[in-house]
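The authors assume throughout that readers already know how a fold can be written as discrete tokens. For illustration, here is how one protein appears when written out as sequence plus structure tokens:
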Amino acid sequence: MTKLRTPDTFQDAMTKILAQIGPAEAARVMTALTKRDYSARTMREWSDPDTGTLPTLVQALALDTAHRLAGGEGAPFRDAFSQQLDIEVQQQDTCRLALVTDSIDFIREAGELHAALFTAAQPGASPRDHHRALVEAQQVDGVLRRIRRRLPNFLRPAMSTGPGNAGGTHQ
């Protein structure tokens, strides 16, 4: 039975390469590159999402090259990496934009709360004025809860080894 591969994954890239050059040729390319014996079975394992094994970046480059030299279109590992990078960046951008939106909401709601508190603190303020201040305080609290849920996403380790994170798990 043929296993399904998620498109634009490294396993899918390996499947495309094997379809173009075959497992035996892929193993020959790896053996020539590394001076270690590789089997066709190892090449098939690299295409299997259940094994958890993948070629190194240098090996993937050699496989992309062999694929192209054999008449294949594109570079499957490069294309998969590019697609996954685009998805990751888009997720992080979405999270940052959501934080900006929350920040704008907080500034607006805090301003409305500020005005409502001034009105409620005036002599002769009505119960409606106090109710409005309470509603505004609850709205500020709601925005702050959203911000508190979002901020830890920027503290989780990113793909890089640098400090902090640019977000990326949009909630």
Q: What stands out?
A: The longest helix spans residues 76-121. The radius of gyration is 27 Å.
